[in-house]
Amino acid sequence: MESYQNILVVIDPTSVEQKALARACTLANRTGAKITAFLSIFDFSYEMTTMLSGEERESMRATVVNDRKAWLNDLIEDYDREIESKVVWHNRPFEAILQEVKDNNFDIIIKSTHEHPTLQSVIFTPTDWHLIRKSWIPLLLVKEHQWPENGHILAAVNVGSEEEEHLSLNDKISEEAINLSNLIKADTHFVNSYPGTPINIAIEIPEFDANEYNETMKNHHFDVMKEHAKKFNIADEFLHVEEGLPEDVIESVAKRIDAELVILGTVGRTGLSAVLIGNTAEHVIDRLNCDLLALKPDGYQSPFLK
After folding, report:
1. Check whether domain 1-112 has CATH 3.40.50.12370, yes or no
2. Other residues' Cβ atoms within 10 Å of the Cβ of residue 62
3. Distance of CA 272 to CAs 10, 113, 179, 277, 303, Å?
4. Taking the CA of residue 298 as centre, how many other CA atoms within 13 Å lie in the half-sphere pointing to its CB?
5. Which of 33, 198, 274, 284 could join 28 in a cystine, given CB atoms 3.0 to 4.6 angstroms apart?
6. Distance between the two ends of the chain, CA-based, in angstroms?
7. What is the pLDDT of residues 171-213, one digit of tens each?
């Protein structure tokens, strides 16, 4: 996290409490990072005022932007540090955010989150989900949970995979967890899930021992997890290997240890596969009561940059 020297904070115009900005200040106070408070606004009614000329509509938009910029400047005055501010007019907030990242080489996006109703999240993809899928830099989604000292960070790793991309991402997630735990004086936990006994095998092969299979699977994943954890000096007591879907296991362990932050990787699916399949970050985001830091694999190519 010390490498995050240029922080973009997405301001929530619907909330008095700016959780993301407060979190950014917590980090910046320890790293000396630069913070930019960013707000994207849009009012369709200004675009539909056909009686006005294009120049007049542009003037109206500028008035609204300046008004919100004044509001934002008043807001950041309450924070005891220098914070830059920027307000833009854009009808797609996630595009405005990513364009700002592209233009100014930000190191991390910090944004507060809202609950996403299941049906709505299928029909209208929230800004959070667009950012999870398309941001090529780390994305910290902030919730209500505070970051007390001696807290807990949970790093979700996929030690069951032998693919180079997953192995590299495991190291990236783990290193980030260690760095951040040192920064905020927390301990680091690793979590990994493994699949249960395939039902069809248990039915079709009478002599198949489901209990033995589960025990073998668990031991294998725990052994691999211990090998991974050795590289980062994480003791066995901080390792969690459990049967189930990743999103279920991550949520369960995060609640059990009262984690302040969950760190996981996301491959950034887009299009139809994202709607039908999603990914672990999207499945788990609404189920956590703590912050979520989503990281992309090295070499990830965002569709926004194509």
Report:
1. yes
2. 11
3. 27, 24, 36, 8, 14
4. 10
5. 33
6. 28
7. 999 999 999 999 989 999 999 998 876 666 655 666 656 677 7
